[in-house]
Amino acid sequence: MVSSVCLAELGHSVDLIEIDDAKVASLNSGRVPIYEEGLEEMLVKHIDHCLKVTPDYDNICNTDATFVCVGTPSLSDGSADLSMIKSASSSIGEALLGSRKYHVVVVKSTVPPGTTEKVVIPEILENRHLKNQDIGFAMNPEFLREGRAIKDFMKPDRIIIGSADDKAGDFIESVYRGLNAPMIRTGLTEAEMVKYASNAFLATKISFSNEVGNICKDLGIDVYEVMKGVGMDHRINQYFLNAGAGFGGSCFPKDVSALIHLAEDLDEDPILLKSVMAINELQPKRLVDLLEKRIGHLSGKRVAVLGLAFKDNTDDVRASRSIYVISELKRRGARVAAYDPKANNSMQSILSDVDYCQNAAEALNNADACLIMTEWPEFSALDREFDRMKTKVIIEGRRILSCAGFEGICW
Ligand code: UGA
After folding, report:
1. CA gyration radius for the chain?
2. Choosing from 251, 357, 370, 410, which is the catalytic residue?
3. 370 has catalytic annotation
4. Is residue 241 in contact with ligand 1, taking CB distance under 6 Å?
5. Nearest CA to ligand 1 atom 20
6. Which of 42, 179, 261, 303, CA to CA, is 20 to 30 A from 326?
């Protein structure tokens, strides 16, 4: 979605192919089925002008390039599920039969190194007739953060273009010519690995801060002051050093697990990556343990949980730390009153038997304790609302209120 509207914004004519009819209908009427800042406005601006949404692959043969942006979710063993990559590639191959002009197939999905060469290209070229056609292949990973994806697309730190040959790479460079960013040219597998290594490194920064934060907590040290000092070193920088209940979302947990799986398949033991995940799994439990230390047995206690999505500014609850925290609270007998500005509905479909509230004040009513899980700006403005609590025990899973002296998981 984001790539489509932003490519349209750059002046290209875009066909967005979506095989789910309900989504096609929704997008064609100008409605985006998820919450992503600025996305609906961009859709409305471009739909029916330079952006078409269709379930058909047929028009691909009249276009210059196809970006493959399908999901690669985790399988139960942690490896990446490439079934959507395969089926999209085979549909592209069929659609390109009979095409007379040069066409570039660009993989944008996050895929394990080697996938473009070993899965996408063979799947597209499976039909013998295509072998003589002029098709180029490229791999162009995206580094967009949910909630800020449009800004990240329009102002990237870098654009990575992996290609099988110069012609395909040059073409992709020309697609992005409107953006002011360094373009790095690599091979296909290198581009695939840049994406995994980037996400793994960011996840490592977070787990590192959480581990240091856990030590700081024992010593009575404020980890945020420590990391501010650490991040001033330009070799480290200040980003992604915010300690808390750990990382969630559809990317870091999935991609680090896939990299671990890939390494183990190669008989490597990825000790660092496994520790990054282990620290992350333990953080939500530490938060609940800390709460129990403060208010005693949780059985029968009412706990307000503010922030349900995996971070602020999104309604996405995939691998959200709140899922683990709420499940653990309930396992220990607590009653949970939950609120998120955007994600109540998405969480409701995963966890029932939770009192979903319309605002933070309602969740705080008569609560024995409150856990703040994400950095929604409206949570930092909470003040008198806490007076509604039975006992004012407030613990942050992400630093948002601490200027007012509240306790946090690592501070
Ligand atoms: C992440 C990357 O940041 C993007 O560059 C990448 O394109 C994307 O994955 C992807 O692979 O598609 P995203 O998952 O949307 O983006 O969200 P982030 O802002 O990176 O946050 C991920 C998690 O880390 C959240 O749970 C967040 O709360 C947590 N986090 C982030 C911390 O705990 N501490 C921090 O300092 C920063």
Report:
1. 23
2. 251
3. no
4. yes
5. 145
6. 261
What order of strands is seen across the sheet that includes strand 335-339? 355-356, 335-339, 302-306, 369-372, 394-396, 407-408
Report the half-sphere exposure of 191 (CA within 13 A, side-chain side).
29
pTM for the full predicted model? 0.95
Cα–ligand 1 centroid distance for 220 (angstroms): 28
For 268-310, write each residue's pLDDT tens digit: 999 999 999 999 999 999 999 999 999 999 999 999 999 999 9
Does the C-beta of 249 come closer than 6 Å to ligand 1?
Answer: yes
User: Residues 224-241: pLDDT tens digits?
Assistant: 999 999 999 999 999 999
Q: Which helix (H) or strand (E) holds 204?
A: helix 188-219
Amino acid in the structure at residue 140: N
User: Does the Cβ of 258 fall within 6 Å of ligand 1?
Assistant: no
Cβ neighbours for 184, distance < 8 A, ≥ 6 positions apart: 158, 159, 160, 161, 194
Residue 146 Cβ inside 6 Å of ligand 1? The answer reads yes
Task: Report which ligand 1 atom has the smallest distance to the Cα of 142.
Answer: 7
Residue 128 pLDDT > 60, yes or no?
A: no
Q: Which of 251, 270, 250 is nearest to 262 (CA)?
A: 270
Helix (H), strand (E), coil (C) string for 301-330: CEEEEECCCCCCCCCCCCCCHHHHHHHHHH
